[in-house]
Amino acid sequence: MGGHILVDQLVIQGVQHVFCVPGESYLAVLDGLYDASIEVTVCRQEGGAAMMADAYGKLTGQPGICMVTRGPGASNALAGIHIAKQDSTPLILFVGQIERGMREREAFQEMDYRAVFGTQAKWVTEIDQVERIPEILSRAFHVATSGRPGPVVIALPEDMLVEMAQVADAPRYEVIDSVPASSQLEALSRRLGDAKKPIAILGGTRWSQVAVDQFADFAARLQLPVAVQFRRQMLFPTDHACFVGDVGLGSNPALMQYIKDADLILLVGGRMSEIASQSYTLLDIPVPNQSLVHVYPDVGELNRVYRADLPILASPAAFAASLGAVPAVEAPAWSAELTRMRASYLAWTDPSAISHPGALQMGKVMELLRSALPQDAILTNGAGNYATWLHRFHRFTRYGTQLAPTSGSMGYGLPAAVGAKRIYPERTVVCFAGDGCFMMHGQEFATAVQYGLPIIVILIDNGMYGTIRMHQERHYPARPSATALKNPDFAAYARAFGGHGEHVETTEEFGPAFERARASGKPAILHCLIDPETITPTTTLQKIREQALATLS
Ligand SMILES: Cc1ncc(C[n+]2csc(CCOP(=O)(O)OP(=O)(O)O)c2C)c(N)n1
Ligand SMILES: [Mg+2]
User: Fold this and answer.
1) What separation in Å is there between the alpha carbon of 189 and the centre of ligand 1?
2) Cα distance between residue 411 and residue 51, in whole Å
3) If exposure means fewest CB atoms within 10 Å of the residue's CB, which of 63, 70, 129, 145 is most exposed?
4) Relative to the alpha carbon of 462, which ligand is closest?
5) Is 267 in the pocket of ligand 1 (CB under 6 A)?
6) What is the per-residue pLDDT for 518?
7) What is the pLDDT of residues 373-393, one digit of tens each?
C-alpha cells in the first residue's frame, strides 16, 4: 500500500524522526508509521512541526521530515518552509492531498501546492503513481541536501496512498559535493600572500564540527581574522584568538569598518544577504572594492549579487578539508590588525560592562549563563530585541549549538528547542524567547511536556513587541501603535501545562531559579520581567524617542 511503501522508503533513506500534525488525508502513512523504526513527534500546530523539522535539518545535515494535512495544515507549515529556504536547511514536507479524480473542483481543503510553495521550496511535486514513490523520494533527498540545501514539498493524493503495488527500493541518498581545484587553492594562496588586510566571513550550511576545526586550524596558521554571519556564531569558536565577531544586526561598528577597509574577503558558505551586508552597504554591488573569494556550494549563488574575483564551487566542508594546501604567510602584514580587532570583539561582548534600567540586569544573566552552561548546550531563539543578549554576549564554541532563524521568524525558538531536545535528550537545551515571540508557537510547550523534554525557556517579558516599538520611536516618536501587549502569567502557564515555572524579577533571583529549573527535570519557563525601557543593551526607549524628537524639531 502506498502509505506503507512511503514509510519503508523513508527508513531506507535513513529517517529516524518525523514531526507531524495528523490529518485524515494521509491516514495510510500514519498507519505505516505505527510499526516503523521511526520516532514520531506529534505537534500542536504545523508551523511548529515544520520548525522542529528545520531544527533537525540544521543539527544533523540530513533532511528534517515534516508531515501535515491538506490546505489548512499546509498553510500553517509554510512558516517553517520559509525559514528552511532562507536558512538553506534540508527539509522534506509531506502534505496530504485530495483524491486525484477531484482536482480543480476546489474540493475540501484543496490547494495547488506547486503554486503555493513554488517560490519557497527547491522542488514541489505530487506523487501520482504509487510505483514512483521510491524514485521521487530518492530525488527529494538529493535535492534537499545537495548544492544549496533547502526544503522540498511532496503532495500525496489520498487515493494514491491506498493503492497496492510491488516496487523495488531506491538506494540511500548520498550528498553530491564538489571540491576546489588545486589551481583555485593556488590562486587563493597568491591573494593571501599579497593581502594587507584580509578577513574571512563564514556563513550558510553544509558545515560540520570537523570542518569548523579544519578552518580554525587554517585561520590559526595564517593569523587570519575570522567573522561569522548573522546567527551563524556556531561556525567558529568565539574563544579562538582569530575570532573577531559577527556580521549581522547590531554588530560591532569597528568590525564593519574593518570589512569596508579590507582588501581581501574570503566568504565561505554565506551569501552576504541583506542583514549580513548591512542592507547591501558593506560591499559594493556588483563589483566589491575588496578582492572577493567566494566559496559556495551552488553555482546559482556565485556572481549573483557580488562579482567574485575568485568564485569557488564547493561546500564549506569540502573547502575546509582542502585548506591544508594553502601555505602560511610569513610574518603577515595584518598581525597587529588581528590583535586590535580581537581586543575590540572582547570589549564589545563584555557583559560586565553593560548596565541598564531595572532590577534584572541581562548582562549579569548572560555572564552567569556563560559559566553555567556546558559547551555543547544548544541555544535557540526566534526574533526580537531580546535575542541581542544571546547573539552579542554568549560565547558559542561548538558547531551544532545554535538554532536561530536568519529569516528573523518570530516563534522559532520554542519548537526548535523541542526538536533539538527530542533529537539529543542528553544535551542541555535553552530557548530564549520574547513575550511576543513565545506566544507565536507557545502551544508547543505541550509537546515538550508530552515527550518529557526538560528544555529551559528564558522568556524575556517587556510587555511589548519591543523591536517594532523601537522602530516606531525612531521614525514616529511618541506615537506607539499596536505594539503594547498584556501578557499572561507565563510561570503559571508552564505549571498549567505540567512544567516548571518561576518569575524572575531581579538579577539575584536568576541563578537560583535557573538551577531549580534545571533540577526540576521538567520543561521549564523562567518568566523574566525586564524594565520596558531596556530596549537594547546600550540604549533606552526614552533616549531613542528624545533623539528622534530632537531631529524632527
Ligand atoms: C512571524 C513574525 N511576525 C512579525 C515579525 C515582526 N517582528 C519582528 S520583532 C517583533 C517583536 C518581537 O517581540 P518580542 O518577542 O516580545 O521581543 P522584543 O523585541 O520585545 O524583545 C515583531 C513583531 C516577525 N519578525 N516575525
Ligand atoms: Mg517583548
Assistant:
1) 44
2) 9
3) 129
4) 2
5) no
6) 98
7) 999 999 999 999 999 999 999
Ligand 1 pocket, mutate which of 82, 83, 385, 472 (most atoms under 8 A from CB):
385
* pLDDT at residue 373 in the model: 98
First-residue to last-residue Cα distance in the chain: 73
- What local confidence, expressed as pLDDT, does residue 353 receive? 85
Cell, residue 290 = 575588496
Neighbours of 339 (CB within 10 A): 13
**The three grid cell numbers given for residue 101, joined into one nine-digit string:** 479524480
The ligand whose atoms approach the alpha carbon of 386 most closely is: 1
Edge-first strand order for the sheet with 402-403 is 402-403, 378-381, 429-434, 456-461, 524-529, 500-504
Distance between CA atoms of 239 and 277, rounded to whole angstroms? Answer: 24
Contact 485, 435 (CB under 8 A): yes
* Ligand 1 centroid to residue 436 C-alpha, Å: 6
The C-alpha atoms of residue 392 and residue 346 are separated, in whole angstroms, by 10
| Ligand 1 atom nearest to CA at 460 | 21
pLDDT, tens digit, 9 for 90 and up, residues 512-547 = 999 999 999 999 999 999 999 999 999 999 999 999
CB-ligand 1 contact for 490 (6 Å cutoff): no
Question: 302 CA distance to ligand 1 centroid (A)?
Answer: 32
CB 212 within 8 A of CB 240: no
Q: What is the DSSP string of 26-95?
A: GHHHHHHHHTSS-EEEE-SSHHHHHHHHHHHHHHHSSPEEEEE-THHHHHHHHHHHHHHHHHT--EEEEE
Sign of CA dihedral 334, 338, 340, 344: positive
Residue positions counted in the chain:
553
Ligand nearest to the CA of residue 483, numbered in listed order: 1
State the DSSP H helix or E strand holding residue 507, giving kind and residue range, or none if neither: helix 507-520
Q: Count other Cβ atoms within 10 Å, centred on residue 106.
A: 10
- Give CA 263 to chain center in angstroms: 30
- Around ion ligand 2, residues with a beta carbon closer than 5 Å are 434-436, 462, 466
Output the pTM of the full model: 0.98
